[in-house]
Each structure stands twice: as C-alpha cells, then as structure tokens.
Amino acid sequence: MSNSHSIVVALGTRPEIIKLAPIIRLLGERARVVHTGQHYDAGLSKVFFDAFGLPEPSHRIEIGGETRATQIGDTTRRIGEHLADRPASAVVVQGDTNTTAGAALAANATETPLVHIEAGLRSFDRDMPEEHNRILTDMLSDLCCAPTEVSRTNLLESGIPAERIAVTGNTVVEAVRTLLPKNRAEFLDRHAVTPGGYVLATFHRPENVDDPETLGVILDELAAVALPTILPLHPRTRQRIESFGLRAQLGRLQVVEPVGFQEFLALSAECAALVSDSGGVQEEVSVLKRPVLVVRRSTERPEVLGTFAEIVLPGPDISRVVGEWISDLAAVHDRLAGIPSPYGDGDAAELSVVAIDGLLSSSP
Ligand code: UDP
C-alpha cells in the first residue's frame, strides 16, 4: 500500500492510546501510528501499547515535558513535516490533549482530511486547556465522531454542520470489554484488598494538584474514608506532592505507581467506589457499574451525572459522599447494575471507521 493511502493516527497520552486502540486494530495495515511522546513515562505509554497488542508506532516525535505552547507548536511542526514527507489520506486524533490540537493543526496546514474521535465534549470551563484543545480540533475537523447526542448538540451549537458529525458512541466501551480481566482476584491480591472493600482514587488535573492547600485537602479527605484507599500516583501528582512537602500525608493511603490498564479495570470493577478527576474513568464506570465521585469544578461528561457520577469540589464533601455510598453499598451497586452506559454498545470503533471510509470516499 502506498503511503498516501495510509491513515495517520496521532496520539501521545495514556487515554488517547486506550481509546484509539480499538480503531487502530480495525484499521489494521492502513493505520500509521505517530506517537508524540506527550506521556513519555513507560507506565503511561508502552504498557498500554503492549496490553492492546498494538504494533510499535511507525513514527515518533518527542514533545514530553515541555510547556503547552511548545508541545502544540512542536507537534504541529513535526507532524506537518511528516505529512509533507509521507502524505496520508487522513489524520485521526482523539480527545483534548496538546497532541490532539497540534496534530489537528498539522492536518489542516497540509490539507489532509481530519477526523476527531470523541468530538463535541464541552466543560464550558475556559480555564481548562483541554476545553480549548477540544474546540479548536472540532472546528478544524472534516469528520467529528461524537460519542453521544449531548456531544452532537454541542457541535451543532458551535456551528458545525450536521454533515460533518457522526454519533458513534465512545470506543472506551470496547476498550473496557476487551481488556477487563475475567480473573480479578490476582489483581486484588496484589493490593491485599477484597471485593467491595476499598476505594480507588486517581488525581492529576492542575486544578487539584497545582495548589498545595487543595492537594493537601484531597489527600486528607481520602484518608478520612472508612475503607482503605488505593491511589495509583500519576507522575505529575507525585512531583507536586514532593515539591510541596506533602509526602507525610500519603501515609494513610495505599500509594502505588500508575498501574496497567487491565489492573486498573480489575480494581475499578471490584471497588466500593472511585474518587477521581479523570475523564476516561467517568466513562469506564458506566460499563463497570461502579460509582465515581468526580472532584472538579466542571465535567465535560454530563451524561453520567446523577447516575454513575456525582461531582464535588475539593473539601469535606469527598468523605461525606463516599461515606454515604459505603453505608449502603449493595443498594448503590444494584441500582447502577441496571443502568445502561450512555456511551454505546461497544461498536463505536466500527461506526467510526465506517464514517472515516465515508469521508475518504467523498474526498477528492
Ligand atoms: N488508568 C490506568 N492506570 C492508572 C490510572 C488510570 O490504566 O493507574 C487509565 C484509566 O482506566 C483511564 C485512563 O487511564 O482509562 C485515564 O487517564 P487520565 O486520567 O490520565 O486521562 P483522562 O481520562 O482524564 O483524559
């Protein structure tokens, strides 16, 4: 196959790898994966390629650890050069990272058709860099694969014409179904916990970890929960804890390095509840039927609010809401077991590839 018929799939972070994996697998030989190294830590990148059995990226650039402007600028320049050198029939990007925005600009500048997976999410919070990355990418995209009707409406309200939008569901559903381990006991044993007997927490967003007081409150609140809390520590959060001198506050938590996707899913599926500021976790719980307490000012995933997710600010609401769930755990889990995921039935990758083929057949 000549280069110009391949489809560049640009990615750089853990959630992009997880959600693009089902599409890369379906595209097979047509996919040319370009990795920007935005997450350069092996625990946030290589282990996810291995878990999904993805081939090594065919092209790598290194933007990790730089400022946002440099990451976006370098991605645009380097992927732009790559596309000039080896043209592609389309560029596929996912989500809301600096890689997403940079690769979108590179596609635009080289007149390569652009596809945005997980388009149309909006937190309406202009203080979040992710919100700007999403809006920019949606506007430049020739095809917006929106996970839900909510995201489709957001796109229409942004002025994007209906012909450019396909509602596909979210590929996270098939990512979870593919990699959720059947035998979860071995993963729980690693952490010396039992089903329903622990809370799982993740934090890395600037609004939670860049201010010492806020970060301290979150760590105290997690420690106040009546069950043990497992905290796989994102490198960014670990760095902040060290520099703010908060290490002593980790003492009452089960702190571990970031875990692989299968292990994280196993721990999520069997926990009492999650506490997190992650986007992907809010979606995954709707497949795993567990409650998540979102600690953030806003969420771009309103589809799960009131069912799988509650949202609170850092403070006493954290231990209060989790405490309420724990006091009536069987009823909480039973109620969620009967609610379908708003993110689809696990055919989002297939629907996205059908839409991509439709775009390519209509491109000159
Ligand atoms: N995750 C993981 N191991 C961990 C923590 C999270 O595999 O130790 C997964 C989690 O299942 C989710 C994704 O990483 O799919 C979330 O990544 P992150 O919070 O970095 O990004 P976001 O989803 O907020 O964009």
Number of domains: 2
Q: What's the helical proportion of residues?
A: 40-55%
Which second-level CATH architecture of the largest domain applies?
A: 3-Layer(aba) Sandwich
| Average pLDDT rating | 96
Shape: globular
Distance between the termini: 19 Å
Order of helices and strands: EHEHEHEHEHEHEHHEHHEHEHEHEEHHH
Which molecules other than protein and nucleic acid are bound? uridine-5'-diphosphate
How many individual β-strands? 13
CATH class descriptor of the largest domain: Alpha Beta
CATH topology of the largest domain, by name, is Rossmann fold
Number of separate helices:
16
Radius of gyration: 20 Å
Characterize the structure shown.
It is a single chain. With 364 residues, the protein is α/β, with parallel strands linked by helices. It folds into two domains: 3-171 and 346-362, 3-Layer(aba) Sandwich (Rossmann fold), CATH 3.40.50.2000; 183-337, 3-Layer(aba) Sandwich (Rossmann fold). It contains 16 helices and 13 strands. The protein has helices at residues 14-27, 46-52, 68-85, 98-109, 129-140, 149-157, 172-179, 185-190, 206-209, 212-224, 235-243, 261-270, 279-288, 317-327, 329-337, 348-362; strands at residues 7-11, 31-35, 59-60, 90-94, 114-117, 143-146, 165-167, 199-202, 229-232, 254-256, 273-276, 292-295, 309-312. The strands form two sheets. A seven-stranded parallel β-sheet has the order 3-2-1-4-5-6-7, sandwiched between helices. Helix 6 links the parallel strand 6 and strand 7. It is globular, with a radius of gyration of 20 Å. It binds uridine-5'-diphosphate. Uridine-5'-diphosphate binds next to helix 1, helix 12 and helix 13. Uridine-5'-diphosphate binds at residues 14-15, 18, 202, 204, 232, 258-259, 261, 264, 278-281, 284.
